[in-house]
Design a protein that fits this description.
By secondary structure, chain A is α+β, with helices and mostly antiparallel strands. Helices cover 49% and strands 10% of the residues of chain A. In chain A, helix 3 packs antiparallel against helix 4 and helix 7 runs parallel beside helix 8. The chains are: A alpha+beta, B alpha/beta.
Amino acid sequence: MNCICKAETQMEKQFAQADVDLHLIDELLAQYSKETGNLITVLQKAQDIYGYLPLSVLQYIADEMGVKRTQVYGVATFYTQFRLTAMGKYIILLCEGTACHVNGSERIATALEEELKVNMGETTEDGLFTLSDAACLGCCSLAPVMMINGQAYGPLTPDKACSIIREIYAHEKLLEEGGVTA
Amino acid sequence: MIIRIGIGSCGIAAGALPVWEAVQEEIADRGMSVELEQTGCIGMCHHEPLLDVIYEDGRSYTFGHVTPEMAREIVQAENPASLEKYLVSSPEKRNSFLDKQLRVALRNCGIIDPESIEDYIKEGGYQALEKIIKENDPEGLIEEIKISGLRGRGGAGFPTWFKWNATRQEKNPDKYVVCNADEGDPGAFMDRSVLEGDPHSLLEGMAIAGYAIGAHTGIIYARAEYPLAVKRAEIAIQQARQKNYLGKNIMGSDFSFDIVIKQGAGAFVCGEETALIASLEGERGMPRLKPPFPSQRGYWQKPTNINNVETFANVPWIIKEGGKAFAAMGTEDSKGTKVFALAGKIKYGGLVEVPMGISLREIIFDVGGGIKDDKQFKAVQLGGPSGGCIPASLMDTPVDYKSINETGAIMGSGGMIVMDETTCMVDLARYFLNFTQKESCGKCVQCRIGTKRMLEILERICRGEGQEGDIELLETLGHQIIDGSLCGLGQSAPNPVLTTIRYFREEYEAHIYDRKCPAHQCKELIKYRIDPDLCKSCGLCAKKCPVDCISGEKKQPYIIDDSKCIKCGSCLEACPTKWSAVVVE
């Protein structure tokens, strides 16, 4: 039982610890847990429910499906779709496809990092924005393009990208203030 | 009158949904007897959102860059065909983008409603399936595919009939047909377009393959980033089941076949057959040694035939029109047509299907309209991260498997990225290697560590810290990775580097020896400066600068603060060309 390599303790540090209701996925597990081949499907659906995959959920899935925890962790870290930390309210997916690259997506990335004061893959301190890249969003004729919560914006310039962020930010601030007065 | 709006991912991204709503509202408000239909992607991505007006006599007018206001104007117009300023294609003046195309795999895309099985049947859908079930001759069917000369459209170009036959020969009665719809090549969206625009052609192709090899289950392994494609494929499966084109005893015969969708979770390596199977089984997508081939031991160790979406989409056409008709298109060793996703510095980007054997020049200049802003054409990249760059001097290379391979590139799945004089080839090689290095599954040492080392060298060169011998080192490493990797990812990862060295060696040398980036792309090697003699102090550059590093006053030349500059080039674009005061050096 005693884990000498302390791998599990190390793992725990990597994950955002959050108290989540594990029973939200009971129905899902009842449907899919019989076959280990469904592991990826289970992780995908669990992520739809929680927004990301907290460590406690991974452990719960491993136990319920009768799969080793290392295997669940291995799969969850292998695929880019799975997120192990909570995301911001607005998820910015900057397309890194070839068409976007030759049309200057790197300049957009630098400008966005500068504007949000985060690096690619990080979330702003206020939890509002997560800046992330995507292999290809498939709207190459709009290159360079980014997608914010499912809405595509393009063709971008560094200046245009920043003003879109500022608009959303201003909108959020208004909401916040509106909330206070109400 | 029918109004048809292209609602694919690219159309939606360009704003097709508000157009749809506007048209719907307008029709309802005016009580018009107009049929409103949705369709997939016709391929003219550069004109999205697209709206077609089809008259009773079959005349079809296509409008491009449609906004909700324009859409209302079109609906209200007495005679929409007269609104010439919005037209992009009409019977009188067909768009040149479509002229050299020959559509087989994309025959229905952008024409039928992908969510209506009736539309597909009206275009002759499921007749091929009916035919082969009636004929009851699976071997003859495989022979027909052999006559057609169809080769896998996913990249490697393996003869389709051979795979089918090998799987058919296996004794195990539990067999699978798998469709690889994990289109991971950045900049390619051919498969998505078929799934979104004509999902039934894929289902029919898979069912025919199932009949040929004796399988009863089909699995579509779809890319997670394609939610709309998955949704449309699901609807199509439901409809096909209701009409008994899928399910038990199809059309009253003793052939049963059903299809399920499994979603990938984002890993480029899962395009490789054995990695894809591992992923289907819920594991990390890591390739294994072949043999045994998937046709012998695949999904859950059962004989499995894997083809990609475009390959399957060709199958119903071949069965209906005959293998000979398909073989009549293309060249000696490459039959039929190929779909390409044309993007990059091209005037008219989008999805094109052309007969094999057509030259690259014809695709880029005649179909794609040439280079954006009439800049100098430099190279075209084929095959994504596994492919290579073909320089402008080889533009008359015909598009067939053999000729493309001879250039060092590969046909690939169909990504075709056009580059102009402002693209840095070293930076492009670095970009692709960064991608493959991240996507390497880590199993083979050469691929895992070799790509990392190559990337570090390329990054160094782009930073202006290249050393003598770097080019040779890249070549050596590249060949070692090709020799020492198990799967296609590693075996092809060095291609973008090796081909750019082969054709653009002088660009590497300029970076290493002169510390210069001839295309002015590598940030560390360039500097933006405002020429005080040319600056008219208009302040446009300062306004556009995203980091506010340009300062100045009226009648005084503006100055860029190098310590804050992120070298994004916004000032260069902002400065009016008649003054051109911002210079890059």
